[in-house]
Amino acid sequence: MIMVVGPIGTGKTSLLNALQQNGQKAVKTQSISYVNGSIDTPGEYVQMPRFYSSLTVTAAEAKIVLVVQDATDTKVSLPPGFISLLIRPVVGVITKIDLPGANREKAKALLKQAGIKEPYFYVSAHTGAGLPELIAYLRERGEKL
Question: Which residues belong to the signal peptide in this entry (predicted)?
Answer without folding.
Answer: none
